[in-house]
From TrEMBL:
This is LacI family transcriptional regulator. PROSITE patterns: HTH_LACI_1, HTH_LACI_2. Transmembrane segments: none annotated. The lineage of its organism: Bacteria, Bacillati, Actinomycetota, Actinomycetes, Pseudonocardiales. Keywords: DNA-binding, Transcription, Transcription regulation. It comes from Amycolatopsis viridis. Coiled coil: none annotated.
């Protein structure tokens, strides 16, 4: 390699044909490495002119054994459940979890990554949706690439197209498609979608899934059928208000998240409509609280805690020096009391 700055511990391990963990132990002088393996690692390091990075040394020495978890909204139960999964794995590795909220602000997300780099966090997990923004993608890669070259670990939850990071990917698109198909089988033919901004990859994937599921049933979802607001409870309430003001005749409202669905149900009830007798409402995620609503919410269930646990397991996995591994976790359609067969004269 002509540029010494880009020689990493991964390069040394690959050249020596040993695991990343063995290369690290050999270079740190531990006695738990066979002599022949140590010689191979030291020879590879000399051949590549490898110089241990101060960041990597701090990580190996355990001086800052922390994991940074970056999410959009720490008050959102979706992120709370994912973080519980992260914390369970972190505890088993003796790691401290630092949680940062970005309020879905791309610049704040970049600032959080920069701060965690400065803190020499052992790993950084991006658990919120990525942004459909090429400039943001380039800036995020510019933050994460030197962090990884210095020994930091990165994993993401949901689709982050350009980061080439280890990913735990819930099947947002497939789950939304399955929910739309289930509502069609229930007898619905007039649909509205309530969703957050489609610059978020999670939102874009779920709306695409709704469109695909309805298209398979011969139903086209027009722009007049999609009501967009902030990706939270108040956003759901506002979008449902717009739906009512437009006198939309949907018999079923497909909602891109459970928290948005809470706002939708509140707005419909305030307008004197019954769920599901007048309008069926679906959610997405299966947050624990939606099971106790009256009626309980039909939704696409995702294994939220498992998403967080597997993301950190990927980040900490010493068995592979590769990046870009993807673990896909399916969703499951759960039909509860918020959906029913449509009556002949429904309106929303």
């Amino acid at each position: 390699m002509s540029d010494r700055q880009h020689v990493t511990l991964e390069d040394v391990a690959r050249t020596a044909e040993v695991s990343l963990a063995t290369a690290s132990r050999a270079l740190n002088g531990t006695t738990r490495v066979r002599d022949d393996l140590r010689e191979r690692v030291l020879s590879a390091a000399a051949e590549l002119a490898y110089t241990p990075n101060a960041h990597a040394q701090a990580l190996a020495g355990g001086s800052r054994r922390t994991v940074g978890v970056i999410c959009h909204d720490i008050s959102d139960p979706y992120f709370a459940a994912i973080t519980r999964g992260v914390m369970r794995v972190a505890d088993s590795h003796g790691l401290l979890v630092m949680l940062a909220g970005t309020f879905a602000d791309p610049d704040r997300e970049l600032a959080c990554v920069s701060a965690l780099r400065a803190q020499r966090a052992t790993a950084i997990l991006l658990t919120g949706s990525a942004f459909e923004d090429r400039a943001w993608e380039r800036r995020m890669a510019a933050e994460l690439d030197p962090y990884r070259r210095g020994g930091g670990r990165v994993a993401v939850v949901t689709r982050h197209r350009s980061l080439k990071a280890d990913t735990v990917a819930p099947d947002n698109r497939g789950g939304a498609r399955a929910m739309a198909e289930a509502m069609h089988r229930l007898g619905h033919r007039r649909f509205a979608v309530v969703t957050g901004p489609e610059r978020l990859t999670t939102v874009a994937d779920r709306v695409t899934g709704f469109r695909e599921g309805l298209a398979a049933a011969g139903i086209e979802l027009s722009e007049r059928d999609v009501f967009t607001s902030s990706f939270d409870r108040d956003g759901g309430y506002a979008a449902a208000g717009a739906l009512l003001a437009a006198r939309h005749r949907a018999t079923c409202v497909l909602t891109a998240s459970d928290v948005m669905a809470l706002g939708v149900v509140s707005a419909l009830r305030e307008a004197g409509l019954s769920v599901p007798d007048d309008v069926s409402v679906t959610g997405f995620d299966d947050l624990p609280l939606v099971r106790d609503l009256a009626p309980p919410l039909s939704t696409v269930a995702l294994p939220l805690e498992r998403l967080g646990a597997e993301a950190l397991e990927l980040a900490l996995d010493p068995g592979s020096a590769s990046r870009g591994r993807v673990r896909r976790l399916p969703g499951e359609v759960l039909l509860r009391g918020s959906t029913a067969r449509p009556r002949r004269r429904r309106r929303a």
